[in-house]
Every structure is written in C-alpha cells, then in structure tokens.
Amino acid sequence: MGAGNVPGRHPEREIDMPTFRFPSDRGALVAAARLLLILSLLLPLGLTGARAGALDDAAALFAADSFSDTAKAIDLVAGADAPHADAILEALADRRLFVSADKKLVFKDKAGAAIDALTGKKLAAEPAGLASVRINNRLRSAINNAVGQMTLQSPDAAKRHAAALAVYKSRDAASEDGLRAASRVEKDAGIKTVQQLALAAIIATAPGKPDIDRLTAIEVLKDQGDRDALTPLNLVPAEAGQGVKDAAKAAVAEINNRLALWSGVQNAWYGVSLGSVLLLAAIGLAITFGVMGIINMAHGEMVMIGAYVTFVIQEVIRQNYPGLFDYSLALAIPASFVVAGVIGIAIERLVIRHLYGRPLETLLATWGISLILQQAVRTIFGPTNREVGAPSFMSGSFKLGLLDITYGRVWIVVFALAVFLAVLALLRFTPMGLQMRAVTQNRRMAASMGIRTARIDALTFGLGSGIAGLAGVALSQIDNVSPNLGQSYIIDSFMVVVFGGVGNLWGTLVAALSLGIANKFLEPFAGAVLGKIALLVFIILFIQKRPRGLFALKGRAIES
Amino acid sequence: MLTNRFLAMLDARGRIFLGVILAAIVLVPILNLVVPTGSSLHVPTWLVSLMGKYLCYAILALALDLVWGYAGILSLGHGAFFALGGYAMGMYLMRQIGARGVYANPILPDFMVFLNWKELPWFWHGFDMFPFAMLMVLLAPGLLAFVFGWFAFRSRVTGVYLSIITQALTYAMLLAFFRNDMGFGGNNGLTDFKDILGYPVQSDMTRLVLFLLTLLALALCYILARAIVTSKAGKVLVAVRDAESRTRFLGFRVEHYKLFVFTLSAMMAGLAGALYVPQVGIINPSEFQPGNSIEVVIWVAVGGRGTLVGAAIGAILVNLAKTTFTTGALAPYWLFALGALFVLTTLYMPKGVIGTFAEWREKRREKAVLAANASTTPAE
Predict the structure, then answer these.
(1) What is the ipTM of this complex?
(2) In this predicted model, what pLDDT tens digit does every residue of B221-261 receive, in sequence order?
(3) Per the CB < 8 Å rule, is A360 touching B163?
(4) Nearest residue on chain A to B242, judged by CA atoms?
(5) Are A101 and A184 contained in the same domain?
(6) Do residue A427 and residue A481 come from a single domain?
(7) Which structural domain range is residue A550 located in?
(8) Alpha-carbon gap, residue A251 to A233, rounded angstroms
(9) Are the beta carbons of B156 and A494 separated by less than 8 Å?
(10) Chain B partners of A361 at a C-beta cutoff of 8 Å?
C-alpha cells in the first residue's frame, strides 16, 4: 500500500534511479501478500499490518545502504504512519538507526536501548552485527521534510504547529497537498493561521502558479506575516506578472513597517521589565534616603541576601518537600523580607544610629558593612553562582502579536508594582507611614510632636532593607545569585533615586520606568554599554539642572 | 626670608613628614645599592617598588584629603582621575615600545594591530613625546575635573548627591574604557612596557629612580597642598566645608574656590597615576572601579581627614595591612578587615590616627597642666 503510493508522489526520483524498481517491487509484493493474509485473519489489526508492511520495505531499502535507497525508505517510513515512524526518522537523523546482521531494522532510543523498528517494541538483547545507516546532508533535509509532512496532521497540537512552521520556512512545494488537507481539518485557529501562511508562502514562490492565486497568497502573507514572511515575498519568481511583483513589494514594505512598530513595542516591554527591576531595587533606597537622608551603600547586599534566602528556602523544599516546589517563592517572599529587615534594623541600631547628621560618614560605614556582608556570604555559600529554579507558573512564554513574552518577566513586573503599591499604602494609610512622612518633611517638628524619631529611623531602615530583600527574590529569577549580585545594582538604584527625587515614591516609579525604557531604546542604536554611559552622563547633567531630582520636596526643610 | 616663610607655613607635623621623606630619599638608595644583599639592612628592589606603589597611593590620598578634608567635597571618583593620569603615562610607554611589540608595528601598539586598525586614532598622536605626555597626565584629569566641577558646583550640587554623581562618573568611565572601540586597549588595558625615556622599565635602577621621584612628588604635593590650605583661600575652603551657605552669603564665590581646589586635586591624582603605572607595569579599566575610589576615602579617614599628613600615612598603613593580609593565610578575611576598618574608623576614630593621637596628646598635656596647678597650689 505504502509502497504503491509513495513512488507516485515523487515520479522524478523514480526516473532517475531505475535500479529502484527491483527492491521496491518486491517490497510491494510482500506487502500485498501480508496485507491479504492479515486481513483475512484479523480485520481490526489489518491496518497495523499494512503499516508494518511499509516499514518492512523500508527495512529492506535501508539494508541496501545506498543513499538513493535510503531516500526511498525515508518516504516509505513517512507514509507508513506508524506511531513510532517519527522516532525511526529521528533515529536515522541522529545515526541511531541500524541494520542487524540478519537484515532486521533496529534503532536505539536516546538512552541506548535497542528497539525493533517494525513493531516499535523494545528488544531484550541488542542484535548482533549492527551496522548504522549512513546519511548525508541531502538525506538530512529529506528526513526533516518527511518528519514535517508526517507531523502535519499529528494528533499532538504542538507537533502540528511545529510541522506547519517547518513548511512555512522551507516552502517545500511537495507539502502543499498535505498542508491543504491538514488545514481543512484543523480546529486550532493559531495552527490554522500558520498553515495558511505556509500555504501562501508555497504558492507565492513555487513556479507555475497562476497570478491570481499568488495575489491572494501575498495578501495572506501581508496581513498576518511576520519576519519569516519577508523571505517568500522577496522570492516571488520572475515569471510572475508585474502586478504580483508590485503587490509583493508593497507587502514587504507593510510588513517592515509592522515589524518596526512591534520592535518598538518590544523595546518598551523590555524597558518596563528592566524598569520594574530597577524599581524593586530602588524603592527601599528611596525610603531610607528620603526619611533619613543617608545613602545606604549596603542596600545592594540586602538584595543579595534576599536572593540567598530564596536559594536556601528552595534547597530545603527541594530536599524535603519536593511537591511544594511551586510554593517556594511564596515562602521566600515573607522570609526574605524578614531576614533582610532584621539585618537592616541591626545595622541601624549598631552603626548608623551613631552617625546621624554625618551623611558622608554613614556612606563610608555602610560601604564597610557591604564588604563584610559580601565576604560573609562568600564564606558561607562559596563564591560561585547558585542555582535558583523557577516555579512552573513562571516558566514558559506566550505570544502577543509578534512579541514573545515570558511569564517570569510578567510576574516580576506584577510583583514590582504590587510592592510599590503596598509601600505606598503603608506610607499613606498606616500610623507608621504617617510618622515616617512627618519625619521626612520636618524631623525636628515631628520630634516635638512626640514622634519617637529614633524608632522611626530604625523601622524605616528595616523596611527599606526588607524591600531590598523582596527585590532579591525577584532578581534570583533573572540574575545569577552570587555574592556580587548587589553590587551590580547599587549604582543603578542610586541613579533612580537621585533622578526621581527624594521623599516621593512616585518620583522613584517614574524614574525607574523611564530609565529602564530609555536604556532599552538606546541599546539598538548605541549598544548596551554606550547606552548606559549615555544615561549616566544624562543623569549627571540632569542633577545640575534639578539637584533634587524630578519630584523634589518643596520647602526649606530639605536644606541640609 | 623665603625659607622663613616656608617654615612658617609648615607645622611641626609637616616638618617631621618632610624630614622623613628627605631621610628616605637619602637612605633608601644607600640601603638598596651600597649595603650588601646579605645584610639585614639591605632594601631589596621589590620592596622599593612596593613602597613606590604605596607612595603613589599616598599622593592620591593627599589629593582627596585636599577636597574632602578642606572643602567638604566627598569625591567617590578620584580613582578616575588617577586612572586617567595612568592612561596618559601608559600611552607614552606604549608608544615607546615601537617595533618591539609582538606584531612589530613601529607605530601602532599591539592591541590596535590585533583589532585590525590601520592608523593611530587622533588622540594617540603626540604621546610619543615625553613632555606632551606629561602635560596630558595633568591636563586630562584636570580638564575632566574642571568641566565636571564647573557644572556641579555652579548648580550647587552638594553632599551625598555630589558623591553619587562622582561615583556615576567613574562608573561611566569604567564602562567606556572597557570598550575596545575606545582605543585604550579595552579589557586588557595597556601593558608590556619596555622603557621610559630610554631606560628599561624593569631594571633595578629605573625602579629606584621612579621611587625617588615618587617621594619627591609626594613632598612637592604636600608642600603645595599645605600652601593652599594655609593661604587665605584655604580659610575660605574650610568655611565652605563648615557652612557653605553662610560663606556664600558673606560674598565669596564658593563655586570658584571649590572648582579650583577640585581641579588641582584631580591633577595631583593624575600625577599619582602617572607615577604608578611604570612601577606596576600595567594600567587597565579596573582602576576605574567605584570600589577603588571608595577605598581611597577610607585611607584618608583612617589617617585623619583634613590633616594632609594623615591622608598619606593612612594610605600607606591601609595598603601595608592589605599586602600583609592578602599574601598570607588570612587572605579570605581581608574584606572583613577592610569592612570593619570602614565601620570602626567612622564610629570610633572620626579624626583618624593623626587626629586621635593629637587629641590624646592634648588631653595628656591638659592633665599635666592640671596636675601641675594642683601641686603648685596646695589646699587653701
């Protein structure tokens, strides 16, 4: 059966290779005989038998060990439609397909276990005299095509999608009928679109198509195409009419426009994503700087500690309760907040308390603390990067238009905004927030009104450090967890705080997002490093114009 | 008359400091060259080089003390000026290699040949001439400081804001110098120097001379700094440090004083860098690291802010400790020690070694006076 229709699909190959006749014909005979036999014995299994027949022929062809026979056999296997046919082809591509001494076809799975290619069942023992089936580059592409065609109608949606995509890229005219058939029965709209695109790509580029079909195809490509649609549009054959060529040109222009737009959207999204990381890292700093007027150089180390808390919690869960792995971050969030917060309060009580009114000395002391914390973590956990895994809901991505968005990034943006809103609410609606705002605006007046400013300072520092710890949880998902983690963020966070202005969280938000977005928009033009330098220079100049940042507190309380 | 004025400018501390430097200028060459190698008094050349390195740091610390101790400008970017001076010197030394490089190109340094550059970038021209290179050692950092300071001081950026943007400055320079396209050797920086003014950089004699020059430079920088802080302008600077707004209201153009001292200090830092590079044999972008600049601040703080001599002593002390720590079994604990040094100095020794010592002597003298008074005036 298979032997009958497969050569028909590729008549030109048949003519090239007359020697093919013999094994092929014999194979067809054998197949027919088997079919009859099995049909008469067991009807329900008949179909399987037929497929096995195609595989039998393929086995004989593979055994011949000539590239042309192997090409034939590949088509046979593809037509056989056996459940493990793709496994056979995959094995062939990986040179894991063998012919044994008694001409049986055997392949090995990736683990190295021998499998009978006819039945797809594992063999107890590896047959003797295995000879690997040789392939060359032409066969490799034949294998890819065959796998592509075979999977066009696979019951697995992901495989179907991949197969349609493969045809879209290869524009193999041989797949046209297969695609049409697949598209007719396709239920999934997304896959159907890809199939239509693939079909359009074939029609637009294959020779001998009528202009009217080409125009429709170009229309399809223009409306739905992405970067991959540019290639078929540029490959419209010379034989096509002028109208088709013009349409293709117009379509290319439109797609390029759309791509430019989407790349803008993509930069904006990356910028928001970077901005949310900056925001997380800077909120805590903004609070301590705003309320206490000190620069906490150990802030980055609080972020680092938060990341390490996440790591420790994940390790504990991984070893003791592997089922809870997805909840590890949920546990890490309060834990890192508390750990970093407590360390922050300890630092405030032990060191910073004694240095009020001397902001520059505080800067030095906290730098010293940051060195100690870094070295402590290096001593405990080692200097190398630690692996923090992503829970299942954070891995993977989805497509928005032409944009691939990873869930991890989305969650970090959400998390950053949630933390921002929570801090805003805390400052706005709680007594502690009220007192903190009072101290920010006028410390001595607040003290006169009975606010215990020392206590507020300690709590503020704890809060700022705790938020840095939360930033660490998020950063553990996108950055290397190493003792140097904090240092790479500290200067950026300073820039955000200084740019945004002190004592105003909205300033921090605006500064973080605008710096993030500006950074990502500069990158394509100037490169990552020059873009960053440009931003640093911009901020240095900006400070000259507005020494107190974008959103400065008004009044004379800030004159220090 | 001039000598009198000169001596009047120095306090006791300064006289001792210059005396020690003078003694070192005389003694070290004798101990290095005349005293036989086996003797316990012999100073080996590696030690001379190491001390030379410390002395460069001392000049850098002195420069920082001038702006931080006297004008209240906490610069976290002095490492950038130091490195710029070093790069200017490094460029001269690179040009001196000539055709002796690996690729034997008489004009282009090796890294440019490696990057497939065809001709010398414009900013490398002239660096084959020593006087021009020396001019650049002072001008490059000076110009950067002048432009930066001109903007910053005019718009009254002060305190931690200024510190942060100086840090941003050195960070931006770090990123820039890491780029190969900048034409400064990228990541690897400038190295493989052969000779300076015709003398081989590696030879013992050159090292000794460089050490002596560094000593001399330290002495001259000290005298210059001392001259500034004892002058009328120095008094204004102290006033700026202690009450900037009041000084401004009194009619002083605060930004001019600050700009002057900042630029001068940057030039000093550049000079230190220029002396540093031939002695260590390499300059690369890591010198721009913000951490390095902050470390300079702690040298000054340890020695004693606003004492000049203290800054130099602090630089030597801390680096001596660093060398001892990091070459022994205690190496992993160095950062703990350095961190603790930051914290403890700011907490318990805000005046540094010199200041604390002076305070202690003052107290003892007071006690002695009290005791003397008590003994001379027995119970009435």
Answers:
(1) 0.87
(2) 999 999 999 999 999 999 999 999 899 999 999 999 999 99
(3) yes
(4) A560
(5) no
(6) yes
(7) 267-559
(8) 8
(9) no
(10) 346, 350
